[in-house]
What we know:
By secondary structure, the protein is an alpha+beta fold. It has a single domain (2-235), classed as Aminopeptidase. 29% of the residues lie in helices and 20% in strands. Strands 1, 2, 3, 4, 5, 6, 7, 8 and 9 form a nine-stranded mixed beta sheet that branches.
Amino acid sequence: MLSIKNFKFIQADSEDLKNAIYQLRYKVYVEEFAFEKKEDHPNGYEKDEYDENSIHFAALDGNDEVVGAVRLVLNSEKGFPIEHAVKTKFIGDKPSLDKITEISRLAVSSNFRRRKEDGQFGVESYIKKSEGGILPDKGPASDQQEKRKRPVIVLGLYKILYHASKRMGITHWYMITEEKLFYTLIKYGFIFYQIGEPVQHHGTRVPYLGIILDIEQRLIKEKPEFLNMLLMGLDRKYHPKLMAS
């Protein structure tokens, strides 16, 4: 379990916790944004065929209520969701499939988004000042800006899935999502590479590939303080090593 500010981030191992995640996803994906049809989820859970081959993570508030969720889809005979949505081109040498996962079904409760007009991830407020956000359009954000205004739930969920990935030997992340989430992650050093053309699926979605080694080396060089936060709670044997320049 990880703790950041007033939130806890945990891997969902119990059926009760997984069901709470599916209920949050139902509220976000079905009721709020109508990405999924109600008739396809009559029990109030938003689930799909990849959930049984996924590792689920939850963000809990001070009352231990699920307020955020994300999953890592593991390799299986079903493949990865991204492979059925868009044609992609891998970057660099492709490892064995057991070293690849797909980040998906990120959801944040509407009660924990900064503004009503924020989308499903609650990150619009963090992108650019010219768009009403709090981070500068150009150049780095000040330490004070970043600490005060970090999208805590999103970053906490990415921290715990990073820890899980390191422990499992995962080296690459697929992700297909809105550009707004991509730009928010970039602000904090989570670099992803576009690996295909945008597709229309619940709005415009772009396929990306994250290479964990590249993310770590960028953080070492450009955001060591954020890297230290990311590594807190992770066994030292999994920490990245400096690469020779």
